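Bench notes, afternoon.
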Amino acid sequence: MANRAAVFVHRLSGHSLSVRRLSIYGSRLTLHARRLHASSAGRSFLSTLLQTAKTKNPITAQWNGQPTHETHPELVAQGETTPGILQSEYDQRRRNIVDSLPDGGTAFLFSAPMHFVSPHVFHEFRQDSDFYYMTGWNEPESVAVLQKSATARRGYTLTMFVRAKEPEKELWEGPRSGLETAVAAFGADEAWPIRDFAKRAAKLIGGAHPVYADLDGEHGLVRSEQCGELRQILQRSNAGARVRRLTPIVQRARLIKSTAELQLMREAGRVSGAAFAAAMRACGPGVSESTLQSTFAHASKMALLAPITDRSTLTTDHSAPITDRSALTRPAYVPVFAGGEHALCMHYVLNNAPLRAGDLVLADAGAEVAAYAADVTRTFPVSGRFSEQQRDLYCAVLSVQEQMVRLCHADAGYPLNEIHRCSTHALATELRQIGFHAAERDIERQLYPHHVAHYLGLDVHDTIDMSRALPLRPGMVVTIEPGLYVPYDDRFPKAFQGIGVRIEDGIAVGQTEADIENLSASAPKSPADIEACMAR
């Protein structure tokens, strides 16, 4: 029988409102919001049903809390939920996760909370990566509940609790997407106001089925208020023993990137490459580390001010009208712009000192494009040319980096931990050729104290719970970032003391060596390319 999807709204308890998507079998009478909106009579009818109050205020009546195709067609193409990612891909992600759950299993995903600098002054919002991966929803105070069901049309039901449209609050806090958008554009079967979560969560966890949720703050993350409410409900109902962690399941899915994700990460790498070239050109004695940081951020935005024609693939066409997609990018993390001996600190982020002639700058920075991160490091001379010792040390690190990149394919059979061991051995060989007599244990403890690689994706240190002992597979994206940091210690040649060098790229793992892709290859890297860039 025909399967028709409809959206309707019903009023409960006089105040609480829910938006649902119904499957209607064998019926020709389908209430479809988009069809009704096409006529003035339909819009009038819907205004009596929808939870959003009728208003001429564009903040509530026309805007959403994030770009959609209707409001930002230059950013979100037809059929996409978020820039570059189709609605069907989000549905498939949820199906994949549900397939890992037992029958009747329920999974709770929580948005990130807002973080405040001071009372009433907030940081820019950044969504929880698991929540974003599963929903594409980019607002705080939100919960997504997935329930595995053999009778559901998609094999699961998605219930979302989100902030309702409220003109009085949106006047001060900005637009919200609201309940109807959660159903119509983000795939929810039902949407409720977030204020109703606590009283409805108990019903959602009823029965003896396992509950999947991440209730404890880990890796420095702060959980939302709704996470605490669910914890209390589980404690009161003596259901705590049924709780399983959800993030390992989601992270295993996130580890393998789709074609669309890889394309966004290529774009993040391209944007970062352009920004590195701009920072190199802006570099010079007396310029502040802070100026390079600002130059990188501005150039990242400008790299997305370009003519495009094919939104689905983000390809450029210089004959097309200018389109500004700079809203898609922001810094992927707090960057390092470390001049001279500041590079001896792995994550120096003060970035407030003037650069000195004859020093190197270690710059570790990356742009985020449509939530996907680049992570790139380059080391370049303040005065535009490497000294002999700087070039020797730089080329030693560059040789190791290139060797390790060539191991990033499935046929090689190496996990990241084994690639790290190979990098330590290769660095020891390179260092002996330029006069170092360091044992590998000294290299690991002092000269090269960090791992050569980590996973990359929605987070800079992506899928943090996934072991680096896993064999590499096509679809994984990893960083390769050997470094040398020579302290003021007479066990090491004096000419190299106080110099820090790191070189890093995002690498898409291939099946064979020929399939490996360097996503940030556009950032100048060889000494000749760096010096040529800085000479312009």
